Amino acid sequence: MKIYLKSCSLFEVKNTVEYNLINGVNLISETEDEPCIATDNDKTLISQTVRGPVFISVCGRSCEQILSNSRRIIEIAPNVVLKLKVGLESIKACSILSSNDVSICMCGIESLTQALISARAGADFIGITGNNFSENKTENIAETISLINKYEFQTEIIIDYSDQLIESGPDAIFISHQDLIGQLDK
Q1: 169: alpha, beta or left, given left = phi > 0 and alpha = psi -120 to 50?
Q2: Angle 177-184/10-18 helices, nearest 10 degrees?
Q3: What is the pLDDT of residues 69-85, one digit of tens each?
Q4: How far apart are the first and last CA of the chain?
């Protein structure tokens, strides 16, 4: 299982890279539920520090806005993965971007159908938040993973860190620096 640090701090990224704890970084943006407040949140430096993917959110209401904003972000570094919140316009943008070999993480997935449509649109990564994924979260995430594998989609399932949800068998987790270090400092 891969571990992607959920952070926006260059210090936290360097700290976890030094100990070889992570495979990449999920950059927290200013528009998320827990906005980035770190003063050392340089996307370019973070992208250069990490060998693996660096997930960066792309905003936009229309496919055209998403595509326009994406062009600027993919110039940051070759390891950038665009994070798009699932929706009709995002699915359209995902199809266009993925056909041009741009890595996409479709996030905010709340159902099996959204996950399958995202994979079909070419998403390289699917971010499932357990809080939004119906009542029987572990079973539903496991079923999603099973169907993604059955239909041989080339996508990686990522969940927000939770000991309970890890049992569902995701390919990777998004975990905060505090939770990651807390697991090791017990």
Answers
A1: left
A2: 30
A3: 999 999 999 999 999 99
A4: 21
Rounded to whole angstroms, how far apart are CA atoms 135 and 121? 26
User: If you ran DSSP here, which 8-state letter would residue 106 be given?
Assistant: E
Please check whether residue 19 is in contact with residue 36, taking contact to mean a CB–CB distance below 8 angstroms: no
Q: What residues contact 140, with CB distance under 8 A and at least 6 apart?
A: 112, 133, 134
Cβ–Cβ under 8 Å, residues 107 and 130 = no
94 close to 124: Cβ distance less than 8 angstroms: no
Residue linked to tokens 């905010």:
108
Structural domains of the chain, ranges and CATH numbers in brackets? 2-184 (3.20.20.70)
DSSP 31: T
Mean pLDDT of 93-116: 96
Give yes or no for a contact between 173 and 160, defined as CB atoms under 8 angstroms apart: yes
Q: Kindly report the number of other CB atoms within 10 A of residue 157's CB atom.
A: 23
State the pLDDT confidence band at 138, using cuts at 50, 70 and 90.
Answer: confident
CA 66 from chain centre, in angstroms, equals 17
Over residues 58-73, mean pLDDT: 96
As a whole number of angstroms, the distance between CA 104 and CA 97 comes to 8
